[in-house]
Each structure stands twice: as C-alpha cells, then as structure tokens.
Amino acid sequence: MKQTVSILFAFLLCIPAWALSDIKPVHLRCNYKINPFIDGQSPKLSWELVSTRYSQVQTAYQVMVASSQALLDKGVPDIWNSGRITGSQTNQVAYKGKPLISARVYYWKVRSWDKDQNPGQWSAVASWETGLFDKSEWKAEWIGLELDSLNINKEYHLPPRLI
C-alpha cells in the first residue's frame, strides 16, 4: 500500500506544471465588438482573463487566426499564428497576419501564460467578418420609388436651390 501511494505521489509530481494553470481568456472582442463586421484591414483584438488563483496575471499570449473554425480546432492557423509573445497586453492587440480579403469570415482564439510562465487553456473561438475594401467590389443599383411617375408631366424636377 505504501509503495502504491509513493508511486502515485511521484506520478503527481511528474505532471507538467502547465496542466495545472487555469488562466483563460474570455469575452473576446475585435475592434471593441463581439464577432463584428469590420471595414478595415487592421483589426485590434482584445480579451479578458479569468482564474481561480488569486493575483494571477498574464505574462505572455498567443493568437491564432484561421479561415475556418475546423482548421482552428485542429490547431492549424492558416492566416496567422503569433507564436508566444511576452507581455501583459490584453487590449487592442494588433493583427499582424496575412492581408485580409474582402467579404470573408475569420476565426480566432487566444491563450495566455500565467504568472508562473505556464500556458493556460485556449479561449473559445470568436470571429470577425470583413466588408468590401475596394470601390470596384461594390456592385449595386439604386432602388426606391420612381419619382417621375408622381409628376403629371412625367418629368420630376427638384425645386430651385435658394442661395
């Protein structure tokens, strides 16, 4: 029995320290919004941290961005992998991945290292969607009321502009 307890205790001592960190990023935001539609090519990413440990701080972080949630779930960030970045910044972290493409959805997640330099859990996946970046991508026709049909003369004229 004593030998079993000793083996169990020795096993517990061999568990990697990172497995014990519970620091976790939550409330992910892009340009201050949750899963937004953005019109720029330089989004800023932010998150908050939770932990059950008192006085916990972030000492590093890693951001992954992918073109699909499936790739991100597999740990294959085809758009950007920041790698481990030392620092406590959790607000307005600049995106530095591949150039963004118009009308696409991007998926991202982040993890933080705690005050003991142990990596925590990955956050839940968040996203942002890009708008149209170039004028030539806009294709539209005017819609609305045909004003000429309201005039007896079949020609609509605006009143003269007073200066």
Give a description of the structure.
It is built from two helices and nine strands. It has one domain (19-150): Immunoglobulin-like. The strands form two sheets. Strands 2, 4, 5, 6, 8 and 9 form a six-stranded mixed sheet that branches. Strands 1-3-7 form a three-stranded antiparallel sheet, with no helix packed on it. The protein is α+β, with helices and mostly antiparallel strands. The chain starts with a helix and ends in a 33-residue tail after the last strand. The model is unreliable at 8-15 (pLDDT under 50).
**Low-confidence region ranges:** 8-15
First-to-last CA distance:
100 Å
- How do the helices and strands follow one another from N- to C-terminus? HEEEEHEEEEE
Categorize the overall geometry: elongated
- In CATH's first tier, which class applies? Mainly Beta
Helical content (DSSP H or I, runs of 4+): 10-25%
The strand count comes to 9
Main sheet record: 6 strands, mixed
What keyword list fits this structure?
single chain, 163 residues, alpha+beta, Immunoglobulin-like, 6-stranded mixed beta sheet, 3-stranded antiparallel beta sheet, 9 strands, 26% strand
Any chance you could write out the topology, listing elements then pairs?
Elements: H1 2-14, E1 24-30, E2 37-38, E3 44-50, E4 60-66, H2 69-73, E5 80-81, E6 85-86, E7 93-94, E8 105-113, E9 126-130
Parallel strand pairs: 2-9
Antiparallel strand pairs: 1-3, 3-7, 4-5, 4-6, 4-8, 8-9
Brief summary:
With 163 residues, the protein is α+β, with helices and mostly antiparallel strands. It is 11% helix and 26% strand. It has a single domain (19-150), classed as Sandwich (Immunoglobulin-like).
